[in-house]
Amino acid sequence: MGAQGKTSNSSSSLRVKVYRLNDEGNWDDQGTGHVRIDYLEGTEDLGLIVVDEEEDDFLLKHSVSSNDIYTRQEDTIISWKDPEAEAELALSFQEAPGCCYIWDQICEIQRNLHFSSLGDLEVGPRPAMEDLEATSSLLSNDESLRTVNSELRDLPSISLSSLPLILKTVMECGIMDQMRVGELILKDQDFFSKLVDLFRMCEDLENMDGLYMIFKLVKGIFLLNNPQIFDRIFVEEYILDIIGSLEYDPEVPQVQQHRAFLKEHVVFKEAIPIKDSSVLSKIHQTYRIGYLKDVILPRVLDDAVMASLNTMIHANNGVVISLLKDDASFIQEIFARMRSTSTSVESKRDLVLFLHEFCSLSKSLQQVQQLRLFRDLAAEGLFDIITDVLQSQDKKLVSAGTEILILFLNQDPNLVRSYVIQQEGNSLLGLLVKGIVTDIGEDMHCQFLEVIRILVDSYTTSGSQRDTIVEIFYETHLPQLVDVIASACPPQNTSQSIAKSSATITLTKPEILSNICELLCFCVIHHPYRTRCSFLVNNAIEKVLCLTHRREKFLVVAAIRFMRTIVSYKDEHLLRHIVKNNLLKPIIEAFIENGDRYNMLHSGVLELLEYIRKENVKVLVLYVVDSFWDQLLEFQHLGTVQALKVKYEQLLENPENKNATITVDPRRKTEDRALEKEEEDYFNEDSDEEDSVAHSSHVRNQNVRSKLPNGTKDHPSSRSGSVGLVDYDDDDDDDYNPPSKKSEASAEDEDGVAFSRIKRKSTTSPDCKDEKPELVKKPKMDLRVNDAKAAIFAASSTCSDSNTAVDTRQSSGEDCPSAPVNNSSSAGVVNG
């Protein structure tokens, strides 16, 4: 009764109401009292005892069961189904701390009952009496009661009998108590040595219950996520036994063999001997941390613990790399062995793999230290070694070499660029290009693609290095890549030159062709001027569009994406090249062949047409509708095709585009060709006066050409006897459009020399008079001659403006899709 008196005088935190569930499903109030845990009278079982606060009588006596019948609801209710009373009971606490305390006591009693087979588990009156007295003292001072761990002062000494209490303390501590439990473990300097001794004893005695408890205890210690505890666990003295304790997982039917694997199967292979013992220790520790994290406890560890272990690995890598890079003799010995002819092939292979891992782990260093390390490695001749490695037949070595290059390019691209520029024959760049088009396996051509993209990236290059590396690539290697595409495609519906170059079809992996297309798009975006020149000279666009004849739809889409990239650049010369060579024909044919299937090909072509319409690329709008509208009629229900036709009609209604619409009429081509021949004969007549005019126009041409943009060079045909006309090699002459009146007026005001020049031209020689009857016979010819003279007048007025010095034909009809283009000079140049 003394205990009952103490309980009746305790704080209100242990004040409860007892409820019983009746047959109707309602809870009946059995009374109010104070709860405690004590031995039941006449038994050795611990149970819940509730004493009435008024009559000092028992409201409840319940023996705690080892079965999982208890439920904690919210913060103040504990309920269970009593098998003896055959009823559901509940305790409703006045305050949450009291409920938390009783719940912890029930859990502890159940745990002790589970491990009762171990014997000598002293869970006597102390939890029920002494802890309750301590609780009453705390509550009397109005201090909050949280969990049993908040009252811990020291952990009991590790022994088989104290394992349940220590395990409960570690496993059931809340977030607020984790730091406290970690401090208690660290406070005991012999904690892990005793734990290891206890593990060895249980393993020798084959005490599986003890081994299971040690497994749970070690797992709980890891979940505390205390870095100082990790430092103690992973020392050489304890780590293998700690790993051994994790072999006895009660949820796994068979004992794991982690220690045997680490001792027998894991071999530490040194490509070059490491003499520093601290470096070796860190290397071994890092491997074991990773093994524990990735193999032993991946299902158990949460994200926070994983992050802590990764931090340890990262820190260890940084220590190892720092110690090795500061050892100058170590680095020099590596490269000396690589260069030595006496070193075996297998040893060189190991050294290359070591360098790969060494460079990869250098990411653990600070950026400044990593850059200094890479410069030291480059100075020792690392790139010479990589050049040799890329010629190896060993795929693993080739992959390691490319990954090292990517690491260097991500850190400092100029290190690699300087080497490529200075290297005789540029063999490294050639090997990288060869790697793109070679099926080495394992998608390694993607790695080579990434290396080249970084090398020629205009955003990360500056100065002379940029110009040199790009010039080498475009002059030597880009045509090779384009020819790979041409040789891998069937030559149907291609020009004769393309068919000859691709007479033998090579079996190239489709993914490689797709990567080459991606690289070409990259080049168009980053180096538009160089790609324009290269594409026009090598017919690259036509060769790439051969991909539209491949069976693989993703290659057809790649070709469409390539054309879309070129069109978005809006280069006048490339657009006219597309129109002249009818380069959209294979794309439209692929679209027609695809039919109504809704796929990437369908969407890609529609997006291309939509872009042409929205951006008002007039020359392509006129070209597409005039050339392919009959084929596109079956798709006119699509909004994009309808909108394109509307845009075309708007261009026809615009007076500025009237001349452009005339030129696209194929019925006039024959007549225009005859007119062009007569015009050339007329203006090529010999006369002294025209020679003087030609000489003055030649001087003026020199000035005009000195101001032409983009470095456009004059074509030799510009020095012909015809004055003021564009000399074309093609038969079409549809672009001889007179300039606007406004431009003529401005030219008259600004250039008096041009006026006098036209005046002299009007007094022609007798030879010209002889041609007059022919002009009368063909009035259309007369109109064109006058237009040509007006073009001379307009061209002279544009000498002061370099932006309008090129192709004065565009003053009134710049969107004419069938304008002839001189292939040898990329664009027509006004001679006047």
Task: Provide the fold topology.
Blueprint: H1 2-8, E1 15-21, E2 27-39, E3 46-52, E4 58-63, E5 70-73, E6 77-82, E7 87-93, H2 96-114, H3 125-140, H4 163-171, H5 175-187, H6 191-205, H7 208-223, H8 227-233, H9 239-245, H10 258-265, H11 277-296, H12 303-325, H13 328-339, H14 345-361, H15 367-379, H16 382-389, H17 395-411, H18 413-422, H19 427-437, H20 445-455, H21 463-487, H22 496-501, H23 510-526, H24 528-538, H25 540-544, H26 553-569, H27 572-580, H28 585-594, H29 600-614, H30 618-632, H31 639-653, H32 658-663, H33 669-683, H34 688-706, H35 741-750, H36 752-762, H37 766-770, H38 772-777, H39 779-797, H40 810-813
Antiparallel strand pairs: 1-2, 1-7, 2-3, 3-4, 5-6, 6-7
What can you see in these coordinates?
It contains 40 helices and 7 strands. The protein is of the alpha+beta class. Among the domains are: about 15-115, Roll (PH-domain like); about 155-265, no CATH class; about 465-490 and about 505-650, Leucine-rich Repeat Variant (Alpha Horseshoe), CATH 1.25.10. Strands 4-3-2-1-7-6-5 form a 7-stranded antiparallel β-sheet. A hairpin with a 3-residue loop joins strand 5 and strand 6. Helix 35 (about 740-750) packs across helix 39 (about 780-795). The longest helix has 25 residues, at about 465-485. Mean pLDDT is about 75; it is low at about 1-10, about 115-150, about 495-505, about 660-680 and about 680-830. It is found in: Nucleus. GO terms for molecular function: protein phosphatase activator activity. InterPro entries: ARM-like, ARM-type_fold, EVH1_PP4R3, P4R3-like_central_dom, PH-like_dom_sf, PP4R3-like.
